[in-house]
Design a protein that fits this description.
The chain is α+β, with helices and mostly antiparallel strands. It contains five helices and nine strands, in the order ββαβαββββαβααβ. The chain is globular and about 70 Å long.
């Protein structure tokens, strides 16, 4: 299934988030998925993306997506491909320490395109297109070069009614994903000489 976890550039099957799928004689689909944490702020985005992807498939009837918590998700649920992607993300954690959250301003690059089915794609400056979920699109949209990383974290914390400390990792991860494909750039103003 080509639905990706909003925080990790990896599909939900390789992440081990799909716990069960049942298709009846009417092609109605019951899908049980889990999340990596109880406090995941992007659960609605994930469920919407699953519904949209399954709904675009031919002959699919009604779709019922249920989030379950038993058994709790652990990294052992992941496929080998999923584990490789998670290791790659962890190796990029050093980027978090290279950006000054207080001073670095984030600029969007490229353009957005709305497809016939209502989904969104972003085109980077090299005209490579990327399908994005609502969370990535929302972040990209507000990166107008006037906001620091800390201000972006504050905006999303208020928007999702989450504690700032819980949102920091998620927003920084989204920034990393968009930077990796050239859809945003970061600029830190030079320190004034004394």
């Amino acid at each position: 299934m080509n639905v990706k976890d909003p925080e990790i550039d990896c599909n939900i099957v390789d992440l081990g988030l799909v716990y069960g799928i049942n298709v009846n004689e009417n092609n109605d689909v019951d899908l049980k998925i889990t999340l990596t944490s109880l406090g995941c702020p992007l659960s609605e985005t994930l469920v919407r993306d699953v519904n949209k992807t399954l709904g675009a498939m031919p002959r699919v009837g009604k779709i019922n997506v249920q989030i379950v918590w038993d058994p709790p998700w652990t990294p052992q649920c992941m496929t080998e491909e999923g584990k490789k992607k998670l290791d790659l993300l962890r190796s990029s954690e050093a980027l978090r320490f290279m950006i000054d959250y207080e001073k670095t301003k984030i600029f969007k690059q490229g353009t957005s395109v709305v497809l016939k089915d209502g989904s969104m794609e972003l085109l980077n400056p090299e005209n490579k297109n990327y399908g994005v979920n609502q969370a990535l699109f929302d972040l990209w949209s507000i990166c107008d070069g006037t906001k620091t990383v800390n201000e972006l974290i504050d905006i999303f914390s208020k928007k999702l009614n989450m504690q700032r400390v819980d949102m920091e990792r998620d927003v920084v991860t989204l920034i990393q994903q968009l930077m990796a494909v050239g859809l945003i750039r970061a600029e830190t103003p030079p320190t004034p000489s004394q």
